[in-house]
Amino acid sequence: MVEFKTSNKEAVTEAEMQAVYKKIATPHKLGVVIKWEDFYTDSPTVFKKDGIFYMYFIAIAKDCNISGYETHLAKSDDLIHWEYCGAIFKRNELDRWDSKQCAGYAAFPDINFEGTGELHKINGSYYISYLAGNSDGYEPDPLYMGLAKSTDPTNPDGFTRFPEPILKPDDADSRELEKKTLYKSFLFEDELNVTGYKYVNAYNGKAHDSTERIFLAVSNDGESWERYGDRPVIDLITGDPRGRICGDPQIILIDDIYVMLFFRYRDGEPAFNTFACSRDLVNWTHWNGEPLIKSEYEWENVHAHKTWFVRSNEINYHFYCAVNDKNERFIALATSK
Predict the structure, then answer these.
(1) Domain boundaries in the chain?
(2) What is the distance between the alpha carbons of residues 157 and 71, in angstroms, rounded to a whole number?
(3) Can you list the pairs that 191-196 forms with residues at least 24 positions away whose Cβ atoms lie under 8 Å?
(4) Is CATH 2.115.10.20 the right assignment for the domain spanning 14-335?
(5) Is 274 helix (H, G, I), strand (E, B) or coil?
(6) Is the pTM of this model over 0.90?
(7) What percent of the chain has pLDDT over 90?
């Protein structure tokens, strides 16, 4: 484990938080963009390549007892209408640690607010991090963090999985509150180098009481990772008897402010997307105002959560997972205009 780097950076002020909220808000909901009748679709991650937008997303058959996460690819010219391209990771019978669960997420995107939207090529390759497991079901414990790479991120058949997980809940340096399962990971190149490491990994881990918080790991090669700090950096669970999950982080950079978009879930309430801000990736100021995304309509009346933010042609696109009481879970979109 790497200790948190001592920081003398100023905290993000309330006025700056208000300005960030206005800058990233997406009040206009367009509704469904990817929905499959017999599957739940979930966890979109979007990037741009050669003028075309691509989405990695995950799917699981609605009969979860005999299924598990798989990863798929779609493409779009306008971020609204999507064409299916094929499966990236399929479940298999190899009896590996990642044979039955393989939920992939785009790694090393340009995190700048007015950036290219493209993925960074690291070590001559493009990467996908993925949630991995070897049991059937909906997120069965334990789950591990895998990594795969390709010379072409838009080729569904081009990714090669690493032979071993990059992080596990039972690693020697695992913190107490992440020892049950590791969930979605967000890997990025930190150009400001505030941790002293070139690459940072933000992810949510689950404790033995099944609560989830967001942690960091760091790397100088993008492939070998060490945990950063002895505690979570986002913890809105401790001290809240109804707090259950802070999860699925995405980080964007606005000037010198890191903006972490993530979802919160409290017992008895729909999950929603919110954000926090930091200048050092360790000390975060939480937004306590209106959620970025929340349940508003019948088609999202159970949860409106999980997040992927894209900025294109001065318009914000916020992809999220909508869940309703008709046993539907699908990818939806909200925009700023």
Answers:
(1) 14-335
(2) 11
(3) 191/253, 192/253, 192/256, 194/5, 194/7, 194/9, 194/279, 194/280, 194/281, 195/2, 195/5, 195/228, 195/281, 196/5
(4) yes
(5) strand
(6) yes
(7) 99
